[in-house]
Amino acid sequence: MLSPSFSMMFTLVSALASIFILPTAAFDESRNDNVVAYWGQNSYGATNSNQANWQKSIDFYCQDNSIDVFPVAFLNVFFGAGGLPSIDLANTCNVNDDPVFAGSQLPQCSFLASAIETCQSKGKIVTISLGGATGAAGFTSDSQATAFADQIWNLFLGGSSSTRPFGNAVLDGVDLDIEGGSTAHFVAFVNQLRNHFNGASKNYYITAAPQCPFPDAWLGDLINSVAFDAIYVQFYNNFCNVGTSNANFGTWDNWAKTQSPNKNVKVYLGVPAAQSAAGSGYLPISSLSPIIQSYKAQYSSFGGVMFWDASQAYANGRFDAAVKAALQGGSSAPTSPPTTTSQTTTTSKTTTSTPPATSSPPPPTSGNCAGVNAWVSNVAYNGGDNVVYGGHLWTAKWWSYGDTPGGSSYQLTQIISVFVNLPI
What we know:
The longest helix is centred in the N-terminal third of the chain and has 17 residues, at 4-20. This protein has 2 domains: 34-327, TIM Barrel (Alpha-Beta Barrel), CATH 3.20.20; 352-424, Carbohydrate-binding module superfamily 5/12 (Seminal Fluid Protein  PDC-109 (Domain B), Ribbon). By secondary structure, it is an alpha/beta fold. A 9-stranded mixed beta sheet has the order 1-9-8-7-6-5-4-2-3. The chain is built from 10 helices and 14 strands. Helix 4 crosses helix 5 and helix 8 (285-298) packs parallel to helix 10 (319-327). It has helices at residues 4-20, 43-47, 113-121, 142-156, 186-197, 220-225, 249-258, 285-298, 310-315, 319-327, and strands spanning 34-37, 69-77, 86-87, 125-132, 173-178, 205-208, 230-234, 266-272, 302-308, 380-381, 386-389, 392-396, 400-401, 410-415. Mean pLDDT is 83; it is low at 1-23, 330-368 and 416-424. Keywords: Hydrolase. This is Glycoside hydrolase family 18 protein.
């Protein structure tokens, strides 16, 4: 037991500490100045050869208060080899450059665990995003969807499994970026996730990323049928791009108030973080800032801004910080990444990815393909990845998904003397 005098001193020190040491602010979904940045696809690297700006480890982007939410993109294969899904994080972690769990195409990315936990310790939330622009996803029954929700809970969230891609890191929820396939039986999937979330020791979130045409072709019925915490509407690559006369944020605000099962759902303005991040819809911050402030003042469902993606934002003069400043009523932002000694950490990883080549070198006349995986149609490949297809060794020129070797995305690296039997 403490002596009375020591106890009084300890109480005084504790009181002073509570005044001068402020806890890290946790993510607050009720706010209207949140910033969401997708991370995982190295969007900058897909179109730019300057490797200095290629995607870094996720903790590189959470060192200040600019970004609040990081959907990790993407879990692009639902039902893969060995009964496990697959994820592709471009130059950071993928099935070609990293070990996979035995009998599966699920890469082991546990080296990212401490990076994810670092972001969470700073009050950010990190979710797993399912689907993507080229992801074909779907269920054949409610029971299959329910079982898949159980698997996602065990692999990424609060459950347990021997095949957790991010090790002991516990993500904060699930994002649905479904842009193909079918959303039949997804209601059962979301409801089962909610069953897991109820009574959990931490908050979990479910979000979706519909495109701006209303209703969204893939997610429209789903978001009308089950409660989402937030939707990140893509106001780019569409006729209703932000800044055009067809921009329809008001329609989505009305949906939030009248149709959504969750009347507190937040609607985010989704934009590209740079000119090269999308085919259309990019606005410089000088043009975007007044729109952000107008939407924030006008629409009560407005939750903030989502952008694609973190690598593009940092290369584009810290677009993320400029967006946060606009949301908070400011007009200036830093023009370079913050100086920190933790930019290079043990979670960083060097891969063999290379930018799109302008010319193809001649095929080598010797070599072997020991340890090279067969090409699989539902796996994304990065520039520099080697695959075996049609009895030959091929090298991807750039990021591709579903492109059969022999087309423009691959160069012939080696003719293999023994034909290899391959899956389709």
